[in-house]
Automatic annotation (TrEMBL):
Domain (MOSC): residue spans on this chain: 32-181
Protein name stated in the entry: MOSC domain-containing protein
InterPro entries: MoCF_Sase_C (IPR005302), MOSC_domain (IPR052716), Pyrv_Knase-like_insert_dom_sf (IPR011037)
Species for this entry: Cryobacterium breve
Domain of life assignment: Bacteria
SUPFAM superfamilies: PK beta-barrel domain-like
Entry-linked PROSITE patterns: MOSC
Length: 193
C-alpha cells in the first residue's frame, strides 16, 4: 500500500526538525556547520556561495548564467546518513554541501511547491531534487552509487536531497521545528533541477 506524503510524515509528538545548518562562502563540496543561518527572501542563505537571484551552481552557470536560481537552499534528511552508515559510509551534516539537515520528513516524497516553515519565520519552497554529481565519489569512493537507485517499478530515484528557494526570510538553527505546507491543486512530483 502506498501512502500519501501527508501520511508518511510524523505526528505532532514526533515533530519534524532541523538537525543542523551549514554555509560556505566558496564553492567547495562540503559546507561547515554554523550555529545559525539567515535566509534572505528570493536569494538564499546569507553569505553562502549559492545565494543569488540567478544560478550560482558552477555547472548551471556554464549552461545559462541568466537562469533563475532554483537551488538557493539545499536540504538533506539525516535519515539518509543513517542509511549510509549501515552501508559503511560516514557522512555528517554539511558534508554533502547541504544548508539544512532535517529529521522526520521524507523530503523527496513531497511535491514541487511544498513550503517548509523552518523555525519561527523562514519559509522555503521546494523546486526539485538535487542530482548527485561525480564529485561525491571523490569525497568517498562508491558513494554516488548509494545515492542513485532504481525503485521496484524501474524508475531512477535520487537520494541527494532537495533544492528550494526562499519564500520568506528568517533565521534557522538546529532544533527548530519544521511545518509542512503542501501546495494546492495538482501535486507534481519533484524532478531534477
Amino acid at each position: 500500500m502506498v501512502t500519501s506524503p501527508l501520511e508518511q510524515h510524523p505526528q505532532p509528538d514526533h515533530a519534524a526538525a532541523v538537525v543542523s545548518v551549514s554555509l560556505d562562502d566558496a564553492h567547495r563540496f562540503s559546507k561547515p556547520a554554523a550555529s545559525r543561518i539567515r535566509l534572505l527572501e528570493g536569494l538564499g542563505v546569507e553569505g553562502d556561495a549559492h545565494a543569488g537571484v540567478t544560478v550560482r551552481h558552477r555547472y548551471h552557470v556554464k549552461k545559462d548564467p541568466t537562469a533563475p536560481n532554483l537551488t538557493q537552499v539545499h536540504l538533506i534528511p539525516a535519515e539518509l546518513f543513517d542509511e549510509l552508515a549501515h552501508r559503511g559510509f560516514t557522512v555528517r551534516p554539511g558534508e554533502h554541501g547541504e544548508n539544512v539537515t532535517t529529521r522526520g520528513i521524507d523530503l523527496t516524497a513531497l511535491p514541487r511547491g511544498t513550503r517548509l516553515h523552518l523555525g519561527a519565520d523562514a519559509v522555503v519552497a521546494l523546486t526539485g531534487l538535487r542530482n548527485p554529481c561525480s564529485l561525491i565519489n571523490g569525497y568517498q569512493g562508491g558513494l554516488m552509487k548509494q545515492l542513485i537507485d532504481t525503485d521496484a517499478d524501474g524508475r531512477i530515484t535520487r537520494k541527494a536531497g532537495v533544492m528550494s528557494v526562499v519564500a520568506s526570510g528568517g533565521t534557522v538553527e538546529a532544533g527548530d521545528t519544521i511545518r509542512i505546507e503542501l501546495p494546492e491543486g495538482e501535486r507534481v512530483p519533484l524532478d531534477v533541477v
